[in-house]
Amino acid sequence: ATLLTIPGFAELESLFVKVDPINIYRESLNFQVLIGNEILQELRIIAENLLVHINYEWPKGKGERKLLGTIWSFLTLAGDINIQKNCVESISHSSMTIARAALGALKPIDTSATEEASNLFYHLWKDNPVVLDSWFAYEASRPNKQGIDAIEKLLSHSKFDWKAPNAIRAVLGGFSKNIELFHSPDGKGYSFMADKLVEVDKINPITASRMVKVFSKWKTYIEKNKEGMYESLLKLNKENLSSNTREVV
Fold first, then answer.
1. What are 93-102's pLDDT values in tens digits?
2. What Cα–Cα distance (Å) separates residue 242 from each residue in 141, 161, 163, 202?
3. Fewest C-beta in 10 Å: which of 54, 59, 101, 228?
4. What digits encode the pLDDT tens for the residues 147-200?
5. Burial readout 161-176 (b: 16 or more C-beta within 10 A, e: otherwise)
6. Burial zone of 112 (CB within 10 Å; 0-12 exposed, 13-18 middle, 19+ buried)
7. Cα angle: 23, vertex 207, 19; to 5 degrees
8. What is the C-alpha to C-alpha distance for residues 241 and 130, in angstroms, rounded to an integer?
């Protein structure tokens, strides 16, 4: 599982003098599609063989569950419809690791399967605030044709609690990991984040001050992203912020 896992976005980002976030994200996905297509049959066979072991009680089956999730990610990106269906069915699996792995594998592809899996997970866990935070983070970080409107809907969701730091981190933290949306070249993602952090600062200055750090690498980005982040920092700087958030800004 570890050998098949490619470096994450933050690690890839650190390798560039000038970071083009959207390009890095897309090329990373393209690379995973390439791997998935190259060893498609081998991955399918391994995934099939792993199904025998995934129901074992922890710590048995731990490695198999991790490997299955890794393989699912490659196969869903490679367009394997059967695996996508398997992932949807696995949302109600008795193992939370498997359910989360299925969600994670479907996340980048923005299809009806992703939507169905997300809805299933929500209905299973809507009365468990701790698990529901992971759903909020998932929804905020996944590609969505609705763009910023999708984030607004999460923030006005009946189960979202503005006074709960974990809920705020789930949605706004998830949004910051939604690379194409947060780093959109028009700067709207940065501006939206700045506006929301001003609101958070009025309720919970500690949480706001920590979350402002999403702008901390602004100087490392290519010009259009750098400008957008800087403008959002200037916008924050003009606000009547708490001492905590002011210090970070």
1. 888 999 999 9
2. 27, 21, 16, 8
3. 59
4. 999 999 999 999 999 989 999 999 999 999 999 999 999 999 999 999 999 999
5. eeeebbbbbbbbbbbb
6. exposed
7. 15
8. 29
Tokens linked to 101: 């792995």
Decide: 193 and 182 in contact? Cβ < 8 Å. yes
CA distances for 237 relative to 172, 190, 199, 220, 230, angstroms: 19, 14, 14, 20, 10
Structure tokens at 31: 């690379």
The model's pTM:
0.93
Q: Token pair of 184, please?
A: 């959109």
3-state secondary structure at position 206:
helix
Cα atoms found within 13 Å of the Cα of residue 32, Cβ hemisphere only: 24
CB atoms within 10 A of CB 227: 15
**CA 228 remoteness from chain centre:** 21
Give phi and psi for 221, each to the nearest 5: -90, 165
